[in-house]
Amino acid sequence: MKRNVFVSAAASVVLLTAAPAATAATVSSADSARTVPVSAAARADVSAEQAVAAALKDYPGVVESLDRDGNIWHVDVITKDGKGHAELEVDAATGKVSRKNVDKDENPGEHKGLLAAKITAAQAAKAAVAAHPGTTWTVEWDSDDDSGKAPYWHVEVRGSDGKTWNASVDPTTGKVTAQTDSDSNSDSDDNS
Questions:
Q1: What is the tens place of the pLDDT at every residue in 153-176?
Q2: Dihedral of the CA atoms 156, 157, 158, 161 (nearest 10)?
Q3: Ranges of H-type helices in 42-120
């Protein structure tokens, strides 16, 4: 009888000391199994800079505009001779590029300012984010002659506070020349 009590006590000691290690190993492997899909799902979205690079790799030229709409980047590219124009979509999750429209008979005179600009769309986005931290959401070349303003890059940056910040970036110097802050749910701009 004493022998059975001793064996039972020894088995209990082994179970008490081994159980936490076994449980920790089980929890650890369960945690790592959970973190693999989470880290794969949490991979970073394709940034504006990456969308520009992907678009230009697919259709070389100069980016005229870049706009994020949900999980799609819409990118317009003008060929360096100004005669071609492509409307591309870049999947913000995968970086896959699809051509939506390609036109090869553009008037090169229409794109003269854009093609001569020293600051690219990607550089304008970088300048705007340096002036107001956040995520680039839109970059557009604006050469509207009706406004009387010199051509510039219009850049929208979304801050971590959910507000959209608008900037005008000089295409020669990269200087952020105008700034406004607007509500993300509103199309109107409030001067800050």
A1: 999 999 988 899 999 999 999 999
A2: -120
A3: 48-58, 112-116
User: Which two structure tokens, joined as six digits, stand for 119?
Assistant: 């600051």
- Mean pLDDT value across residues 93-99: 97
Element (H, E) at 26: helix 2-41
Task: Please give the torsion angle defined by the CA atoms of residues 164, 111, 145 and 122, in that order, rounded to the nearest 10 degrees.
Answer: 20
Say if residue 18 is exposed, middle or buried (CB neighbours under 10 Å; 0-12, 13-18, 19+). Answer: exposed
Residue 113: exposure state from Cβ atoms within 10 A (0-12, 13-18, ≥19): middle
The model's pTM is 0.71
Contact (Cβ atoms closer than 8 angstroms) between residue 88 and residue 58: yes
